[in-house]
Amino acid sequence: MKHEQVVQQLPALRRYARALTGDRWAADDLLQDTLERACGKWRLWIAGTDLRAWLFTLMHNLYLNECRTAQARSAAVAIDDVANELVAPGRPLDEAMDLDRCLQRLPAEQRAVLLLVTLEDLDYQEVARVLKIPVGTVMSRLARARARLRELMQAGAGAPALAEPALRRLK
Hints:
It is built from seven helices and no strands. It is an all-alpha fold.
């Protein structure tokens, strides 16, 4: 029974991993690491609780750990060492960004909340439980993520960012 329950969650886990990492190979690695962690920590899951939320929590924590490790490994590079690899800016038409690239430009904590709410259709309580943050923080990060994503998409399309519409009085 446990095996079948986990298998049912694979498409959602793969989708979330792909959206988090922005790379198919990295997403597959993250999914595999999540499943390995779930197998190793299976005794920690309490039967009757939300398996989906537990698996998403494992995946999210693994992703954050990978981000921290990668950040610690990154070192400063002298510009002279990579001068031949630098690419000149493209024409404005080349700068159009698709949704995936815009998602990857969001801060990780905002991207995680946005993806869990919109892509995985979790409610705010479930997202708060998965990410171990208060519901108010979920709502705040979601609002900021949506606003930033809107800005990035408009900038990527070459349209100026729209200001909030002014209120008009109607008689």
